[in-house]
Write the structure tokens for this entry.
Amino acid sequence: MTSTVEAQAVQRRHAEDEFAAELAALAAGDDRPRPPGWLLSPAAVVTYLLGGAAADGTVIIPKYVGSRRLMEVAVATLATDRALLLLGVPGTAKTWVSEHLAAAVSGDSTLLVQGTAGTPEEAIRYGWNYARLLSDGPSRAALVPSPVLRAMADGRIARIEELTRVPSDVQDSLITILSEKTLPVPELGEEVQARKGFNVIATANDRDRGVNELSSALRRRFNTVVLPVPGGVEEEVDIVSRRVAALGKALELPELPPAVDEIRRVVTVFRELRNGATEDGRTKLKSPSGTLSTAEAISVVTNGLALAAHFGDGVLRAGDVAAGILGAVVKDPVSDQVVWQEYLETVIREREGWRDFYRAARRGE
Amino acid sequence: MSEPLLLGVRHHGPGSARAVRRALAAFQPDVILIEGPPEADPLVPFAGDEDMRAPVALLAYPADNPDPKLRASFWPFAEFSPEWQAIRWAVACEIPVRFIDLPAAVRLASGTPAAPTPADDTVRIDPIGALAEAAGYDDPERWWEDVVEHRQETQPAWTTTVTDTTGIPVSHDLGRTTDRSTGRTATGGTTAGGARDGGAGAGAGAGGVGAGGTTAGGAGAGMAGVGGAGAGGVTAGMATDGGAGAGGAGPAGAGAAGVGGAGGGATAGGGSAGGVAAEGLGGPGSLFAAEPDIDEERLAAAVAPFAAIAEAMAVVRAHAPAPPEAERVDEERREAHMRQALRAATKEFDRVAVVCGAWHVPALTAPLPSASSDAAVLKGLPKVKVAMTWVPWTHARLASWQGYGAGVRSPGWYHHLFTAVDEHVVARWLVRAAGVLRKDGVPVSSAHVIEATRLAEALATMRGRPLAGLAEVTDAAHAVLCDGDDLRLSLINRRLVVGDRLGRVPDQTPGVPIARDVASSQRRLRLQPAVSSREIDLDLRRDLDLQRSQLLHRLRLLGVDWGQVLANRKGRGTFWESWQIAWQPEFAVDLVEAGVYGTTVREAATARVAEQAAEAETLADVTALVERCLLADLPDALPGVLDALDERMALDADVAHLMDALPALARTLRYGDVRGTDLSALRSVTHGMITRVCVGLPAAVGGLDDAAAAVMRDRIDGVQGALALIDDVDASQRWQALLGGLSTRDDLHGLLTGRMSRLLLDAGTVDADEIGARMALVLTVGVPVAKAAAWIEGFLAGDGLLLVHDERLLALVDAWLTGIPADGFVEVLPLLRRTFSGYPAPQRRMIGERAAHLGSGGRPRAGEHDDQVDPDRGALLLPVVAQLLGKEPHHA
């Protein structure tokens, strides 16, 4: 845990710091059995994720807006000592969910390995402090533990982001860790055994090209939860508004009146282009190359709020979000531009009450 | 004489089914009354036959009434249906069974379906399901198990340290505040008395129920009190009965606490619930006194769930929203009839057991209204003569069936719950799920199954359910066995959750009339049903084959796809028809379902066609029906279908639809004669259709783009082909005149005018000179090259022989082609390539040869090789040719 002074200076606080009060309240009023090594009971973890109230009345704000069933499966997976694989297209809150799960279960969301095509085996097992290694020879002191190794030693949750981007041979070094719950260190002739409470949450993107499919040996050590894109407009508007409000607070933007109408527009545009059809189901549309996730909608609205607060009249208007939408939709300058133009001229232009948005979007080009 | 034992069940509920068996075994009744049509009484003995296998259904159909408005009704039973278990038990113990619902004769006459099932009225159809839902369960059978039977107690999957002193909270704290408060109250009450956790569970569940039911009634906070009363009452009932047999510590205390709760609740809620609770307790008590030879403890334990359910039902019924009038009347009649039957049975027998839907229990509970008032309700109801029989049924049909016992969406799961009686219900299920996936080539290991089982149990604990239900095992299968893949999960759903179980009835069961008709036709036509697939060729000139074809076509109309028509295998004339036939066991069920349309295949197919014609949306649908009607030889259906056709034709503004419909009619007219049908009505309808096409076409061909023009060209070809088939001089002349007018219109797409010109040329309406002139006109500088190319494409489409034989036309094309400027040539090249590449290679070569010799003086010789025949080399081929022709080569 960081001190208060530091905490105010950091740009984004860890989940366990940001929601420390909620976690403490839940833990205090939690009389259900807790799995060994857990700070909360599974039911309390679900409450923490989906919102509700702690026993003492503390309001728990929802971290994930969506299916309770999915969160229950995710938490129950961790409770049964199985590793959890969160699958989904980009922007479906995979990382968000994994961070909050780790924070709620072991009070520490920082044991993180970012998976990339260049992730080495050291990032999952351990590395060496070479100066030490050369001067003293192999010893515990010369060993540089990976986040996974530290999680094992402390009985916490380790997180691996974008597991499918990690090369296959590196992925497979997880197999022993997940099945035997131990990591041998042959150089020292010893091993690190995981303490109770250790587990792994991995996230992966099932849309990207050029990913390394998990081997079936590894795959079967994970339970899979597929996080879907939000089901309806209202649900998505809700998600975007909540996150925008939270982000605005974190970024210390001036307080603005809530702009649900603009948010609804952004969400509508995103949904229609993503689904390739208008919400009323009457018009078919082309879809742009980007994923147009909820996360991007959030960033468009936050960006618009910043524009409105610093350069505008303090109210979020069509012009503030239009430029952001254009940037989010047109990822490929040629083909996406056509998609956007078509959408603008055939759908937006005709839509009642969207005149200002249409004009702003035309200006933005 | 003792009070009748009322067993209120959940239709198709395996938990109820088990409880019914237990209760019957303990009670040893002299007669069992079951909710169902009384006409089925003589059919009961068949249920004991060893060839009988559930799922089966009782079928009631109008015996000798051809009125098509009267439809047959079904009462399906699965292995896990309480009614079925009661019947089997009775047959095994040789105890009489009587069905006590309103007679099928009355229901069929009044036209109401077997059970009215409006989608929004779930309380009436499945009150126990509604109770379970109000208590936070999505699987009513698991609720029954937890709350009503509390057979097992599980522990959190991740720990073994939790003991039953902490227990697993039965109520949820996951945001259902009503449940939580009532749950807590109930738990408090039982803890005071020291009863088992299960007792608390019952109270909590039923409490939630009352609250849920009343909220549906729309009466807010006041009703929550009544819910509490229900909870208290049930707790009392359970604790007292449990005290007698099932090992609760301190039964007196528990009873007192429970009754106190009931009393308090009743005061808040208005007295009625308390009264019912007292009734429920009194019933079994007096019963013990009357029959000392019955094992009282066992009986008390066995009937306890039903007493609890009956009390809960009294509360639910008192606060359920009023149904629509027709339904209310129907329910009143049914319950009046049940009461009358109950009165009759109690006079005749000493120990009476009643198995009926839980909803009806309060209506059959003493004190009953006077017999005369019930008689008045039932007086003078219209009746028809009905016949009944057993028919096989399937799980898939149970899942999709609308009507009596609707809403069994997971018959496979229920069957599993009913048959897997040990503690490994979840593991067994997941092993079967793994089997389904393996069979489809998805590698699933035992380790997967172990993990899935653990996950399901952990989920159940987390959701506060002592037992994993369908939702838990499905979630676990999804996350572990299916790797999150929805497709694989749907496979499990289809094969396992619904399942493909097929019922069977013994041979000596009275047959369904339509099935008898099919069987006799099969014998008469020497076409035995066999599961293995085989192909047959029918010569429609022979009477036997014609009748076979008609039978197969009729069955297809009824949705029994015994035979599939194959593309003409013999290909020697229209009188041959090839079929692939394979008889699936489910056809027996399909046939039974088709039986609602009539008692013979012919009659049923006629009724079905009439219904389809009335429902058909597009003209093409009706036309297809006409054709099928003739194939199946249903002359009685034809007038209706033709009327529908005439009507759709008049209303259909789009000439394209008419043109699409025409070819099928023409085929029918032409080849229907083979089957010896009277086609004069069809002929006049077709004639009318051609007239409409001719009137509508000029407006429909203008302003078409390339794609639309191509579609229209195919339609015009279709009409032309149709006209060639039917012998209608008048119509043909009209069509030719129309084409003549259209083909010179400048505003049409070149493809169409080209095509029309070709059709006119082929028909001889326009001579070659005229066509030459037209082509010359099109292929001039004034016409855009694209249009000219389209014209050529239309004119030549599919057949280049014309160019081979008419040198003048070829010269025109050649001159035009060579005159196209370079940039224009690039534009038309794709079009030309499309046109010419469609011709067979020899034709292309010949056109090329002709074009090369154009202008070099007359026709080229037919080929140099003509006059240079090499007889020796030719002779080498002769044996092969002879073999191909099937003849011995002649040796000179």
In short: The first strand of chain B starts at residue 5 and ends at 9. Residues 178-322 of chain B form one domain.
